[in-house]
Amino acid sequence: MKKVIIICFIIFFLGVGLFFLFVLFFGETKVRKIKPIEIVKEYHYEESPFYRETLRNNDSIIYLNIWTSYSPYSVDRYKELVKDKSKIIYNLSLDKDSLSIKKNIEKFGIENDITLKNYKYRDEILKKVYYNWQFSIGDFIEFSDYKTPMTFYFDKNVFKGEFKGLD
């Protein structure tokens, strides 16, 4: 019985030793620097390209169409909006994946889409317009409850409300 226990210990220690030798010679060893904790940048609506480049210096009515690839009504809304060539329309997608957004912009032929350019600011833009909208109608809306399609309009960079011209 003692011989069996001694043999088990020898096999165990040989196995552990062989494992360490294997890791030492064949294992990939990387030296990594420990990164300091990164401070998450806060993105503000007023810093977004949509606000700075589109709204801030514009004296005409701007329409912001919120769309998703999974809502057939979103594409219909977009097609109705672009029929009136006098409207200045920008589109913002609620889809999460940037590759999917790019693919669907091409698939549905959506022009003036600002989603990718404003990707980091998208949540702030959505919070701002949906907050202003819910404040104007007196309801409370959660971020996860954004409905689509929705089209909002701005006059001289001031939020005016939901555009209901298609109903």
Indicate the low-confidence ranges by residue numbers. 137-144
Which CATH top level class fits? Alpha Beta
Radius of gyration: 28 Å
The class by helix and strand makeup works out as alpha+beta
What does the largest sheet look like? 4 strands, mixed
- Oligomeric grouping of the chains: single chain
Number of helices: 5
What would the CATH topology be? Glutaredoxin
Quickly count the domains.
1
Mean pLDDT: 80
Distance between the termini: 89 Å
Task: Give the CA-based shape.
Answer: elongated
Give the tally of β-strands: 4
Strand content: 5-15%
SSE succession: HHEHEHHEE
Task: Report on this structure.
- With 167 residues, the protein is of the alpha+beta class.
- It has a single domain (45-162), classed as Glutaredoxin (3-Layer(aba) Sandwich), CATH 3.40.30.
- 43% of the residues lie in helices and 14% in strands.
- It has five helices and four strands.
- It has helices at 2-26, 49-55, 72-83, 98-108, 122-137, and strands at residues 61-67, 88-93, 150-155, 158-162.
- Strands 2-1-3-4 form a four-stranded mixed beta sheet, with helices on both faces.
- Mean pLDDT is 80; it is low at 137-144.
